[in-house]
Specification:
The chain has 494 residues and is α/β, with parallel strands linked by helices. It contains 15 helices and 15 strands.
């Protein structure tokens, strides 16, 4: 037999006597030498087995067993394999299906019905131990919280007390926490500028690095700094020394809430989100002069752009987009002919794909029937175990290949696709008219559907980036080749 050695140690386990990964490996390798076993791989995992789907290496090991890389597992004790009944059931099922020939420990071998019963007992006891341990840990944490003792790793600004009964202010970082709340409560700092200010004054993380704005934000909304402990939405009175008052904490929350509250936009700048300065790469923004005149100019985000000094009014920008849509608009006759060709081709492809799909589905059904008949023959004793394993592997391999193929052949709603393409075609032949005669909402909607953005220099749109849906239509007016029109529209607009 070919064995996987599996070693597991969880940091959550309260038993200090639980063997380390290296100790487990040494014990099992000594056993391998004594018994002359063949080992394919050694797998060591530091994860809890209390819940299923929590151990990627364990899951991968069972998948490798199913692929035939090994057919047995060696562990120091069965509780290393599972402490929950779902993972335990998976292991037992593999043995019952003869995919996994045995599970072995230095003292026991599990490979038949009587031994599986005893292994099941082991798994039940291990599962009960995990549940009992979880209850005890939860009760212990609850007791600490009711006593006001901080039950876990201290937040920044505090350090854990050596006896494990709480936290106390960090002499280095605690003053910075107080300072942060005082500065932000003044209303003169954003979280970004506060982060920069604290860094300049010497505030660092435990690793000596700069704190990110997201970490400063989490710090400012943490009530534990005024003397409580927050767990699962509930507050407990803490014994630790507060770094701020409740009043200053509430003041900071009001400022954060007020700044995060969405503001109603007073002006609708139609073209603001679709223009980029070609000279510096910054956005072109919009503003209002004398309370009524809308203008556009480069934001000059990098501080060195000459275009920033030039202003363009709304009518000029609208004329630029009008010119773009006039050049982009498709010839109606050629657009209709190309769509008819496209529709005919897609309907024929859809029929062919559907026939192929049905044929593969039938092959899968036939293989399922063969597998069931093969299992009946094995149970009736009409074929040997070796022959059963061989044929079953062949069937499963073929089945897996067909399932991959059918997964890749995703059925498309051809009617919806054609409806969408026709809608694009109808819009494309009257873009200029719609833009010219529509209101600001229609103009903005048209630009948003056709363009990601456009480069803008000296008052002109110099280049454009089309959206994925409209990209195939780019430059079509420059050719009279209908075949090219049809090919360029083959992209699935869905």
């Amino acid at each position: 037999m070919k064995y996987f050695i599996y070693c597991r140690k969880s940091s959550e386990e309260g038993n200090r006597q639980a063997q380390s990964l290296d100790t487990q490996q040494r014990i099992l390798l000594d056993y391998v030498d004594q018994q002359k076993l063949e080992v394919v791989d050694i797998i060591k995992e530091s994860k809890s087995a209390r819940t299923d789907q929590n151990r990627p290496l364990f899951t991968n090991m069972l998948e490798r067993v199913e692929r035939g890389e090994a057919n047995a597992v060696l562990v120091v004790h069965t509780d290393r394999l599972a402490r929950n009944l779902i993972d335990a059931g998976h292991v037992i099922k593999l043995i019952e299906n003869r995919i996994l020939k045995e599970v072995r420990t230095p003292t026991s071998v599990f490979n038949d019905a009587p031994s599986l019963m005893y292994m099941g007992f082991d798994f039940v006891f291990a599962s009960h131990y995990s549940r009992d341990l979880a209850i005890k840990v939860k009760a212990g944490n609850e007791s600490k919280l009711l006593k006001g003792e901080y039950p876990s790793y201290a937040p920044i600004g505090y350090v854990n007390i050596m006896n494990g009964k709480g936290i106390e202010p960090d002499p280095i970082r605690a003053p910075f926490i107080t300072r942060a709340f005082e500065l932000f409560s003044s209303g003169e700092y954003s979280i970004k500028t506060l982060t920069k200010k604290l860094y300049e004054e010497g505030f660092r993380s435990r690793s000596g690095k700069k704190e990110y704005t997201s970490q400063i934000h989490r710090m400012l909304i943490n009530p534990e700094y005024y003397g409580v402990i927050r767990r699962k939405g509930q507050l407990y009175v803490g014994k630790h020394k507060p770094l701020i008052s409740k009043a200053i904490f509430d003041q900071v929350q009001n400022i954060i809430f007020d700044r995060s509250r969405p503001r109603k936009q007073k002006h609708n700048f139609v073209f603001r989100d679709f223009l980029i300065c070609e000279e510096c790469g910054c956005k072109v923004t919009a503003g209002i002069a004398k309370g009524k005149y809308i203008y556009y100019r480069c934001t000059n985000g990098k501080g060195s752009c000459k275009q920033h000094k030039i202003y363009w009014d709304t009518d000029h920008i609208k004329d630029e987009f009008q010119q773009f849509f006039s050049q982009f608009e498709l010839d109606p006759e050629r657009a209709n002919i190309s769509f008819d060709l496209y529709k005919t081709k897609k309907l024929a492809e859809s029929k062919q794909d559907n026939n192929s799909h049905l044929a593969i589905e039938q092959q899968i059904k036939n293989l399922d029937i063969r597998l069931k008949k093969l299992e009946d023959m094995y149970l009736d004793g009409r074929i040997s175990a070796e022959r059963f394993d061989e044929r079953k592997t062949d069937y499963q391999n073929e089945l897996a290949q067909l399932q991959v193929i059918i997964k890749q052949k995703v059925k498309q709603d051809i009617a919806h696709t054609l409806e969408l393409v026709e809608e694009v075609k109808n819009n494309a032949v009257q873009l200029s008219y719609l833009f010219k005669n529509g209101n600001d909402e229609i103009r903005r909607s048209l630009i948003k559907s056709v363009l990601w953005n456009s480069n803008f220099l000296d008052g002109e749109i110099t280049s454009t980036r089309l959206t994925k849906l409209w990209k195939p239509l780019e430059n079509l007016n420059q050719t009279h080749d209908l075949e090219k029109w049809r090919r360029d529209r083959d992209s699935n607009p869905g």
